[in-house]
TrEMBL record:
<dbReference type="InterPro" id="IPR008927">
    <property type="entry name" value="6-PGluconate_DH-like_C_sf"/>
</dbReference>
<dbReference type="InterPro" id="IPR036291">
    <property type="entry name" value="NAD(P)-bd_dom_sf"/>
</dbReference>
<dbReference type="GO" id="GO:0005829">
    <property type="term" value="C:cytosol"/>
</dbReference>
<feature type="domain" description="Mannitol dehydrogenase N-terminal">
    <location>
        <begin position="1"/>
        <end position="195"/>
    </location>
</feature>
<dbReference type="GO" id="GO:0008926">
    <property type="term" value="F:mannitol-1-phosphate 5-dehydrogenase activity"/>
</dbReference>
<dbReference type="InterPro" id="IPR013131">
    <property type="entry name" value="Mannitol_DH_N"/>
</dbReference>
<feature type="domain" description="Mannitol dehydrogenase C-terminal">
    <location>
        <begin position="202"/>
        <end position="343"/>
    </location>
</feature>
<dbReference type="GO" id="GO:0019592">
    <property type="term" value="P:mannitol catabolic process"/>
</dbReference>
<feature type="binding site">
    <location>
        <begin position="3"/>
        <end position="14"/>
    </location>
    <ligand>
        <name>NAD(+)</name>
    </ligand>
</feature>
<dbReference type="InterPro" id="IPR013328">
    <property type="entry name" value="6PGD_dom2"/>
</dbReference>
<dbReference type="Pfam" id="PF01232">
    <property type="entry name" value="Mannitol_dh"/>
</dbReference>
<keyword id="KW-0560">Oxidoreductase</keyword>
<dbReference type="InterPro" id="IPR000669">
    <property type="entry name" value="Mannitol_DH"/>
</dbReference>
<dbReference type="InterPro" id="IPR023028">
    <property type="entry name" value="Mannitol_1_phos_5_DH"/>
</dbReference>
<dbReference type="InterPro" id="IPR013118">
    <property type="entry name" value="Mannitol_DH_C"/>
</dbReference>
<comment type="similarity">
    <text>Belongs to the mannitol dehydrogenase family.</text>
</comment>
<keyword id="KW-0520">NAD</keyword>
Length: 383
């Protein structure tokens, strides 16, 4: 069994690649970072170091590595005989993966087993986004034939893999916790055997609970923490004012999760407590800059703040905790993060109503709009 995995970064090496390797797949990493690919190609193993309770080291061996930018032909060759293709590149990068996959599907014999395609990104239905990007490169006449040569399954991935020390080489430090939920229906009776993953009939509750609890809470910790002058996530949550602000935002998203899905309030409380403990892990060298990265993506319409806040506002529920988190996100000013630089430029150049529309996708007349406009106006005024 062979898996081609796009994105040999933190989640690629420290989670998806590891679980595929443990499941018995021959893993081929594809990445555009030439230095990383050269290092992987030159080495026959790397180690995933867990930190936290029950931590252990796991060694990944037997992989190959391809520079997908420089050696598209070799990549196509690997894809043509692959069983599985996964990604962990970031949702905004999926459109650059699609051209490789459309060619691979064109060249895949019609009688070969379908290629299982799973995007492992922090976004709702990321695999559907990738499928749509692939379909857009084909014609309406051709697409049904290509689509039949693949199984597209959405997934939810959860493991904190922080930025790695400069001298870590290929090794990756990760938390012990992980969860990989994959939707089962697209596979019929033939789901792949990946012991580290669990297959679920309906992914929506899992991905929403994950994105609107883990990711809302983590990003809120980063933004409130940065505003309060902290650089490490664990230090930020040790600050009672930050912890309280994060808790307020999470109480709001938890109410939505419980109202929409089949989780009890007690289950959601326990889930929330667990994730806050994970963020507090002092052995995880995680920073507010990494966790707050790409604030424009995080402030977009269906993401961790605006997504749940909009739904709650539509239900007539106030969302002061989430609005405060958005306010803190607007103050995220990190010169090394291009989205942060763009965010600050947009904030100074646009009127609040225009900013809200362009950045969050919330339209005038939506019940969340007035609250967002006030938060943006306050951030513009430096309040
Ligand atoms: N790090 C974490 O704790 C978690 C990350 N995720 C998600 O996993 C995804 C990846 O995140 P990380 O691994 O942290 O980022 P990362 O920056 O460590 O890795 C991303 C990798 O993708 C590569 N890449 C960029 N463009 C590419 C292209 N066109 N083709 C092939 N490779 C390309 C980069 O060179 C890099 O090696 C994101 O969607 C993130 O939201 C999900 C759960 C946890
Ligand atoms: O790129 P994003 O959306 O910040 O994703 C990385 C985040 O995903 C999460 O892991 C958790 O699974 C966060 O801990 C981490 O900060």
């Amino acid at each position: 069994m062979k898996a081609v995995h796009f994105g040999a970064g933190n989640i690629g090496r420290g989670f998806v690649g590891l679980l595929l390797h443990e499941a018995g797949y021959e893993v081929v990493f594809a990445d555009v970072n030439a230095e990383l690919i050269d290092a992987l190609a030159a080495s026959d193993h790397y180690t995933v170091h867990e930190v936290g309770v029950g931590a252990r080291d796991q060694v990944v061996t037997g992989y190959r590595a391809i520079n997908s930018q420089a050696d598209a032909a070799a990549l196509l060759d690997e894809l043509s005989s692959a069983d599985v293709a996964t990604t962990a590149v970031g949702p905004t990068i999926l459109r650059f993966i699609a051209p490789h996959l459309v060619i691979a599907l064109r060249e895949r014999p019609a009688d070969a087993p379908p290629l299982v395609i799973m995007a492992c990104e922090n976004a709702i239905n990321a695999t559907n986004l990738l499928r749509d990007e692939i379909a857009a490169l084909s014609s309406p006449e051709e697409w049904p034939e290509l689509e039949a040569r693949a199984v597209f399954a959405n997934t939810a991935v959860d493991r904190i893999v922080p930025g790695q020390a400069a001298d870590a080489g290929l090794d990756v430090t990760v938390e012990t916790f992980f969860e990989w939920a994959i939707e089962r229906p697209p596979f019929g009776n033939a789901a792949p055997d990946i012991p580290g993953a669990h297959f679920v009939d309906d992914l929506a509750p899992y991905i929403e609970r994950k994105l609107f609890t883990v990711n809302t809470g983590h990003a809120a910790t980063a933004y409130f923490g940065a505003t309060a002058g902290h650089s490490r996530i664990s230090d930020a949550l040790g600050d009672p004012a930050v912890a309280e602000a994060v808790e307020r935002a999470l109480e709001e998203t938890s109410a939505l999760i419980v109202a929409k899905h089949d989780f009890t309030a007690e289950e959601q409380d326990a889930y929330r407590a667990t994730i806050l403990e994970r963020f507090r892990n002092p052995e995880l060298p995680d920073t507010v800059e990494r966790v707050g990265r790409q604030p424009l993506r995080k402030l977009s319409r269906h993401e961790r703040f605006i997504g749940p806040a909009a739904e709650l506002a539509e239900l007539g529920r106030p969302v002061p905790g989430l609005l405060a988190a958005v306010g803190a996100a607007l103050r995220f000013d990190v010169a090394a993060d291009p989205e942060s630089v763009e965010l600050q430029a947009l904030l100074s150049s646009r009127e609040p109503e225009v900013f809200v529309h362009d950045v969050t996708g919330i339209e005038p007349g939506h019940p969340l709009e007035p609250g967002l406009v006030s938060v943006v106006a306050a951030a513009k005024g430096g309040a």
